[in-house]
Design brief:
single chain, alpha+beta, 3-stranded mixed sheet, 24% helix
């Protein structure tokens, strides 16, 4: 997960959390994120005081079973 800042940048704090692949700066929904924005583990999805991107969540849930199968 990588944070999206508010309109004022880092001084505004985290506005929304997005899912990213690895350490990418582009969210699964396509939004470009600040490379220096905070990151969290995927297991934190839904456990943050800030909202999480619904579109990213949908993509992540569709893709994750396939990623897990590749590593077995």
């Amino acid at each position: 997960m990588r944070a999206e800042y508010g309109a004022g940048g880092p001084s505004d704090g985290v506005r929304l959390w997005h899912m990213v692949r690895g350490a990418e700066d582009v969210a699964m929904c396509g939004r470009e994120l600040d490379a220096g924005a905070p990151v969290r583990d995927a297991v934190d999805w839904g456990k943050t005081p800030e909202l999480c991107c619904h579109t990213c969540g949908a993509y992540y849930l569709r893709e994750t079973p396939y990623l897990a199968a590749e590593h077995q």
